[in-house]
Amino acid sequence: MLPTLVLTLGLAPGVDVFGGARRDPTGPAAYPPIYVPAEAPYGYVYQPAVDLHMVPRLPAEKYCPQPGDVLLLSDPDPLFDVLYVLSRTGKPGHTGVVVRMPDGRLGLLEAGFSFTPFTRITPLEYTINLYAGWVWARPRQTPLTEEQDRRLTDFAVQADGGAYNLKRFAAQISLVRSRAPLVTRFAGKPVGPGKEYTCVQIVVEALVHAGLVDGATARPAATHAQDLFYDRSRNPYIDRHPPLAGRGWGAPRLWTPIPGTARRGSSRPKPPAAWPGPGGAYVYTPAPLSGPEVPAPVATAYEPPDPRPIAPVEAEPPRIGFFDRPYRLLSRRR
Questions:
Q1: Strand-strand pairing, 94-100 and 106-111
Q2: Is 103 exposed, middle or buried (0-12, 13-18, 19+ CB in 10 A)?
Q3: DSSP strand E in the chain: where?
Q4: According to the model, what pLDDT value does residue 180 have?
Q5: Is 281 within 8 Å of 38 (Cβ atoms)?
Q6: Which pLDDT score is estimated for 176?
Q7: CB of 245 within 8 A of CB of 231?
Q8: What is the pLDDT of residue 8?
Q9: Which helix (H) or strand (E) holds 204?
Q10: 302: left (phi over 0), alpha (psi -120 to 50) or beta
Q11: Secondary structure tally for the chain: helices H, strands E
Q12: Cα–Cα distance measured from residue 279 to residue 231, given in angstroms and rounded to the nearest whole number
């Protein structure tokens, strides 16, 4: 009963907890102007660590994304903290996968882009700098083959513009769910391209379709973003069959657009405020298109760097709770 009430509150037409993005999924709430660092459009990553603490582990390196990279994202909204607990999981709670767009640019395939109930492929330099929370990258250590790259793009193109699978999302915070320990072995299997997905489901489905993850053991509909972060899970089946472990992905690396800092996206400067990062930044303003078409983010201005320093970390760092650690007591992999 409680999960249903919480989900109803979050998705009710009269209660827009997403700041207008769900009500107008192609408007300025979903596609606001943002800063993109001029010297590093994809930002920077710190040294790898399987750790949710927001610590700048120097040195920072320019993030050089490639198709197949998995981004793990953690939103600071209290509503999502409640939903994580109801789903028996924790941070990070969202994810996307880097794909090559049909025009050759890199984009992020994401179900639930910018808190809208849609799947989008968005230019990576825009969406990674847009996110309101924290971001970690799990980069590919083994580049994709041409065929894997093509299949990943094909899957993304078929999924682009589709609806977010709200029914499955609701099921994951109820007792009727594919993640239930005795059910996962038989449920939550890959369904293939062209369907409706939740955020983690679409990432695992895309990787299965590209041949990067074993479709026989993968359970896209039963996997949580936290499972992809730790390569461990509270679910016994997924703990024995982690989708990314040993398949060419590196450990998580905390991402930042401003080297030396580890701040959530919502606390970083937005246009027209001054930009504190080195080398200045471009202002990306999504160009509105006719009708319901998705806006196209384009660079419209340049903001020189502000010499005044910015605090490197949050004044109140996020609390790492019990459900933010997935390790199960007495767990043992076979």
A1: antiparallel
A2: exposed
A3: 34-37, 44-45, 61-62, 70-74, 94-100, 106-111, 119-123, 134-138, 253-256, 281-287, 296-303
A4: 64
A5: yes
A6: 56
A7: yes
A8: 38
A9: helix 199-209
A10: beta
A11: 8, 11
A12: 36
Q: Is the dihedral of CA 110, 253, 125, 32 positive or negative?
A: positive
Find the length of the chain: 334
Residue 1's pLDDT is what? 42
To 5 degrees, how large is the angle CA 173–CA 178–CA 181?
Answer: 95
Question: What tokens appear for 165 in the block?
Answer: 């699978």
Q: What is the residue extent of each domain of the chain?
A: 2-324
Instruction: Reduce the DSSP state of residue 182 to 3 states and report it.
Output: coil
**pLDDT of res. 18:** 46
Tokens representing residue 152 in the block: 């990943």
82's enclosing H/E stretch is: helix 78-86
Closest C-alpha among 233, 138, 230, 130 to residue 179? 233
Element (H, E) at 167: helix 166-172
Please provide the DSSP assignment of 237-272 as one string: HHHHS-SSTTTTB---EEEESSTT-B--GGGS--TT
DSSP H or E run through 149: helix 146-159
Q: What is the pLDDT of residue 12?
A: 37
Torsion of CA 6, 222, 220, 218, to 10 degrees: 170
Comparing C-alpha atoms, which of 46, 49, 47, 50 is closest to residue 327?
50
State the residue for tokens 């894997």.
148
Query: CA 165, CA 157: separation in Å to the nearest integer?
Result: 17
Which residues of the chain are modeled with pLDDT < 50? 1-19, 329-330, 332, 334
Please state, in angstroms and as integers, the Cα–Cα distance from residue 100 to each residue in 70, 210, 262, 327, following that order.
13, 12, 28, 34
